[in-house]
C-alpha cells in the first residue's frame, strides 16, 4: 500500500443492526459486504493507541445529516455504544487493508448541527467492576437469569396506551388496571410503537389517580418523546430489599443480597462484637 493510494474507511454498527460505512476517499469502496461512502457523515481524528491494556484515545466527529447520522437518532440514544471499526485501505485494491481500530462509541456531544463522539477501545470493559458485591440489597436485575422471576402476564408487566404526555417525561394513562400506588416506581418503561419505538427509561414516580387514571414520571425524558396513542410496556419496580422480594414478588428463594450483614455503624462501633468478661 503506497501513501498516494491509501484511504481510511470506518464502519459503525448500531445495537439494532443498522450499519453505515464511510471513507475519506472520493469514491465508494466496498468490502466485507459494506459500502463505504465518500460522505461527511463521520470522520475520525488520528488514533492514539498505547501498548498493553490502556484504553485507546480518539474521537469521531461529523455532520448530523439526514442520510447518515441524524440528530434525532443521536438524541434518542440509538448510536450509544455502537460498534466501530476503522481500516487503512488501498483504494486501488481493497483486499490490501489493515484494521487499525476496533471498539465502540462512547459519550456523544452535539453542537450546531454536528457531533463529536468518544471512541472506546476493546479494553474499555476492563474498567468495569467485576465480581460479586456483598451488600444487604439484591445484586440481580429484576427478571434476569439470577433473579429468575418471569415477567409475564399482567402482575409485574403491562402494555398500555399513552393518553397524554407533559414536559417529555410525565406520561398519563386512562383506564389503567388497578395496581398499588408506587407499584412501578424504580421500574422500567419501554416504547413499543411510534417514532420513539425501542427507547426505554426508568420510572421515578408512579401515582394512582381517580377514575382509573395513572401518572408515570420518568427520571429523564426520552430523546424522542412518545405521543398520545403510542403503546408502551411498564415493568414493576424493585428496590432490591429482602422484604420487597418476599412480599411483592414472592421470590425470596432467588434473593441475591445478604440482608443479615451487620451495618457499617455496627462495624465501626467501639468494641463491636467483643465478649464481655
Largest sheet: 9 strands, mixed
How many domains is the backbone divided into?
Answer: 2
User: How many beta-strand segments?
Assistant: 16
Overall pLDDT? 84
Strand percentage lies at 35-45%
In which range does the helix fraction lie? Answer: under 10%
What is the first-to-last residue Cα distance? 83 Å
Query: What structural category arises from helix and sheet content?
Result: mainly beta
Radius of gyration, in Å, reads: 25 Å
Pfam family, one: Phage_phiJL001_Gp84_N
Organism: Paracoccus haematequi
Protein name: Bacteriophage phiJL001 Gp84 C-terminal domain-containing protein
InterPro entries: Phage_phiJL001_Gp84, Phage_phiJL001_Gp84_C
Features:
3 helices, 6% helix, Elongation Factor Tu (Ef-tu), domain 3, Phage_phiJL001_Gp84_C, single chain, mainly beta, seven-stranded antiparallel β-sheet, nine-stranded mixed β-sheet, 277 residues, 2 domains
Can you describe this structure?
- It is built from three helices and 16 strands.
- The model has no long low-confidence stretch (mean pLDDT 84).
- By secondary structure, the chain is mainly beta.
- The chain has helices spanning 71-75, 242-247, 264-268, and strands spanning 6-13, 19-23, 29-31, 34-37, 43-44, 58-63, 83-90, 93-111, 114-121, 157-161, 164-166, 170-173, 188-191, 200-208, 214-218, 231-235.
- Helices cover 6% and strands 35% of the residues.
- The protein has a nine-stranded mixed sheet with strand order 3-4-2-1-7-8-9-6-5, with no helix packed on it.
- It folds into two domains: 3-126; 157-235, Beta Barrel (Elongation Factor Tu (Ef-tu), domain 3).
- It is globular and about 70 Å long.
- Residues 182-265 form the Bacteriophage phiJL001 Gp84 C-terminal domain.
- This is Bacteriophage phiJL001 Gp84 C-terminal domain-containing protein.
- Pfam families: Phage_BR0599 (PF09356), Phage_phiJL001_Gp84_N (PF09931).
- InterPro entries: Phage_phiJL001_Gp84 (IPR011928), Phage_phiJL001_Gp84_C (IPR018964).
Amino acid at each position: 500500500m503506497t501513501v498516494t493510494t491509501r484511504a481510511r474507511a470506518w464502519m459503525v454498527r448500531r445495537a439494532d443492526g443498522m450499519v453505515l460505512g464511510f471513507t475519506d476517499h472520493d469514491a465508494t469502496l466496498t468490502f466485507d459486504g459494506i459500502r463505504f461512502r465518500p460522505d461527511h457523515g463521520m470522520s475520525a481524528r488520528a488514533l492514539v493507541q498505547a501498548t498493553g491494556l490502556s484504553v485507546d484515545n480518539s474521537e469521531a466527529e461529523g455532520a448530523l445529516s439526514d442520510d447518515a447520522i441524524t440528530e434525532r437518532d443521536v438524541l434518542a440514544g440509538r448510536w450509544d455504544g455502537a460498534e466501530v471499526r476503522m481500516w487503512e485501505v488501498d483504494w486501488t485494491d481493497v483486499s490490501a487493508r489493515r484494521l487499525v481500530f476496533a471498539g465502540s462509541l462512547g459519550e456523544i456531544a452535539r453542537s450546531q448541527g454536528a457531533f463529536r463522539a468518544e471512541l472506546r477501545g476493546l479494553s474499555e470493559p476492563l474498567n468495569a467492576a467485576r465480581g460479586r458485591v456483598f451488600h444487604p440489597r439484591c445484586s440481580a436485575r429484576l427478571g434476569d437469569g439470577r433473579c429468575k422471576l418471569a415477567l409475564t402476564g399482567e402482575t409485574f408487566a403491562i402494555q398500555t396506551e399513552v393518553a397524554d404526555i407533559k414536559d417529555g417525561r410525565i406520561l398519563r394513562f386512562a383506564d389503567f388496571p388497578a395496581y398499588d400506588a408506587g407499584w412501578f416506581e424504580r421500574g422500567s418503561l419501554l416504547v413499543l410503537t411510534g417514532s420513539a419505538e425501542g427507547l426505554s427509561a426508568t420510572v421515578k414516580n408512579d401515582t394512582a389517580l381517580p377514575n382509573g387514571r395513572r401518572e408515570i414520571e420518568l427520571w429523564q425524558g426520552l430523546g424522542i418523546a412518545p405521543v398520545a396513542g403510542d403503546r408502551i410496556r411498564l415493568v414493576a419496580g424493585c428496590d432490591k430489599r429482602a422484604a420487597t422480594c418476599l412480599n411483592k414478588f414472592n421470590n425470596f428463594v432467588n434473593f441475591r443480597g445478604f440482608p443479615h450483614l451487620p451495618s457499617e455503624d455496627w462495624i465501626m462501633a467501639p468494641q463491636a462484637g467483643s465478649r464481655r468478661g
